[in-house]
Amino acid sequence: MTTYEKPHLSIDQQIDLLESRGLVVPDREEARHYLGTVGYYAMGSYWYPARRVVDEGSGSRPADTFVDGASFSDAAALYLFDQKLRLIALEALERVERALKVSVAYTLGKRDLFAHRDAVFMHRGFVTDRYWNHARWVADLDGKVKRKGHQHIKAVHDRYNGKLPIWIAIEVMDFGDISRLIWGMSEEHAEPVAEALNLYTVKALVSWSRAMNHLRNLCAHHQRLWNRELTVQPSAARGPLRAFFAQIDGEERLWQRPYAALLVLAYLHEQVVPGSAWPQVLGAHLQRLPVSPGVNHGEMGAPDAWHAHPAWGLTA
């Protein structure tokens, strides 16, 4: 194992290093601002596409030097684009998360006020899972109720012998909690939730809710979004859903990229808030991607004619 031995560099030394490697820095004050408030390695995600590629015979790797024309200002513009992209996505993710919670509470609440706590409403895999089973999920939920930020909910919890009905319990759950519960619900109880979102299978509901939780975590924790490969990607659309996703239908590799996840978010948002202008806001922002060396819509997993999708409201 190699020990990390690169020295600490001042902000100006960082800029000098970048310039020595061929990155044009047209505004040194701009560079100082971003390196001092965002950080060298975080900004590196945005100048990375402009690095030269070295052929090593058995493969290729990015070099430390940059292609001609690469600029720090381009990296800064891409950072700002990605920052706003995350904020736009979060707006819709909040609505989708809320709708999922209400739908689960309504569906399970009709069966039993405390159905989320009862293993009889869950599939066997959730009950017996060794790593994160239903009993542990319930215990974690109970722990969240006791936190100081949930005093009004804790009062109900204490008054009724430590149990909250599902329609109150959802207020303590985060997106990860609700996506895990959706995965754990038996199919007969998950089907109405899928139907409420015009998803035609429970499999799609489970996969897409997990993918949206992953997308939400990336956005909420300020992680690069625009060109990454998603750790948790939505399953490819099947059956009637394929029509909305015709642009990427049959392109399994594209379902690993952010464009597919954003298209899934657009579909879910339309089911939750029909006729909303949010997809057009997202489409207009995607169109403003600051194209520069190594930076294009294809890096997001978007097909050539991505802008022609009706959801974005753009001219072809």
What does this structure look like?
By secondary structure, the chain is mostly helical. Helix content is 51%, strand content 4%. It is built from 13 helices and two strands. The chain has helices at 11-20, 28-37, 40-47, 72-111, 124-128, 134-145, 151-159, 166-169, 175-184, 187-196, 202-220, 258-272, 278-287; strands spanning 51-55, 60-66. The protein has a two-stranded antiparallel ribbon with strand order 1-2. A hairpin with a 4-residue loop joins strand 1 and strand 2 (60-66). Helix 9 packs antiparallel against helix 11. The mean pLDDT is 93.
Give the SSE map.
Elements: H1 11-20, H2 28-37, H3 40-47, E1 51-55, E2 60-66, H4 72-111, H5 124-128, H6 134-145, H7 151-159, H8 166-169, H9 175-184, H10 187-196, H11 202-220, H12 258-272, H13 278-287
Antiparallel strand pairs: 1-2
Helix pairs in contact: 1-2, 3-4, 4-10, 4-11, 4-12, 4-13, 9-11
